[in-house]
Amino acid sequence: MWCIRDLFTHNPADLFKLLDQVNLGVHPAGSIDYESIKAVKEALQIPVFGSGNILTPVMAKKMLDETGCDGLLVARGALGNPWIFKNIEHYLENGEVLKKPPMAERQKVLEKHLAYIEQYNEMAETNKRGYMGKVERWYLKGDPHCEWEKEA
User: Of the candidates 53, 75, 94, which is a domain's last residue?
Assistant: First the structure.
């Protein structure tokens, strides 16, 4: 049985092998265990990045405050929301949550994103269309004028 104290008995080079073997990155699967991330941060002499459920600037600050980690990795929070990085930075500096960009700006960025998919993604056309629809929903989530939002 593996446990968090095993992190303290390994040198940093072996640590990454161990983390890969037990499928523990900076956050375990499921809910975020801030205490474990904090323990890892305190045990290591290398930068530790917090990750997992960073969907808003408030959640980003919570990760930093509760773990003392050196930085953040944002994944799902950036899907359809490339502004999250600027918003996190603003919130950390000013304590103010910025409003969502206006729909016109979101649509413009969406169109650029879809053009990149069209140009660079080499999947089959039928798969590409389905994927593009998924990307579209990321950007337009919460818009009451979207038909799929009314059905949900």
Answer: 94
| Sign of the torsion angle spanned by Cα atoms 24, 27, 32, 33 | positive
Does pTM surpass 0.90? no
Query: Rounded CA gap, 46 and 71, in Å?
Result: 12
Other CB atoms within a 10 A radius of the CB of residue 8 amount to: 12
Query: How far is CA 96 from each of CA 14, 62, 89, 152, rounded to the nearest angstrom?
Result: 41, 14, 10, 31
Residue pLDDT, tens place only, 40-99? 899 888 889 998 889 999 999 999 999 999 999 999 999 999 999 999 999 999 999 999
Q: How far apart are CA 77 and CA 73, in angstroms?
A: 10
- Euclidean distance between the first and the last CA atom of the chain, given in angstroms as a whole number: 43
- State which residues form the domain around 139: 103-151
Final residue of a structural domain among 94, 128, 143: 94
